[in-house]
Amino acid sequence: MDIQKLKEFSAPYYKDKDIMHNLWHIELVEKWIDRILHLGNYTVDSEAITYALYFHGFIYSDEEKIKQWLTENHVRNIDKILKISWESQRPEVPETLEGKILHDAHVLEGGKTYLVVKTLITGSVRGQTLTETVRYLKEHVIDHNHCYLPETIGLCDKMNEYAKQFVDELEKGIL
């Protein structure tokens, strides 16, 4: 696996994304993949999960280009890589262990405080008022993210509880 080639291929797809969804986002999710692998002592196809990690942010818009690049670079298990990429984005329970790990790492990215920070920054970048962003956080984010591995379910619950408490205190101060 040539990680430099992978980064070079993926970089343009993240270049124009907001600061919470650029290549730094990939690095944060990768740290959580490593944590989850350690917590669960899992044996996985690390090459497939790494490719899927880099592709998860644009699989929905450029799957054919990804397939072409993987084929041209003689990467094996292309279907598995694509499946894992898709699994990290969907609300359904992923079928593959790698998909569950990537999905859960994506949910837990940055830890329990990061959910609030990411939503606030993303709302601001999108031009929302603080009130609109808090409403979005309550209606579409808190308790709408789920983890599927035994090691991550409790972490996700704590993240959601923290976000609820944060929003409650924030609303008391601004409303």
Any chance you could write out the topology, listing elements then pairs?
Blueprint lengths: L2 H13 L7 H18 L5 H10 L3 H14 L5 H10 L9 H12 L5 H12 L4 H12 L8 H25 L1
Helix pairs in contact: 2-6, 3-5, 3-6, 4-5, 5-6, 7-8
Write a concise synopsis of the structure shown.
The protein has 175 residues and is an all-alpha fold. The protein has helices at residues 3-15, 23-40, 46-55, 59-72, 78-87, 97-108, 114-125, 130-141, 150-174.
> What class, by secondary structure content?
mainly alpha
- The low-confidence parts are none
- Percent range for β-strand residues: under 5%
Main sheet characteristics: none
Distance linking N and C termini: 52 Å
| Oligomer class | single chain
Radius of gyration: 17 Å
Mass-distribution shape: globular
Describe this protein's structure.
This protein is an all-alpha fold and 175 residues long. The protein contains nine helices and no strands. It has helices at 3-15, 23-40, 46-55, 59-72, 78-87, 97-108, 114-125, 130-141, 150-174. The mean pLDDT is 92.
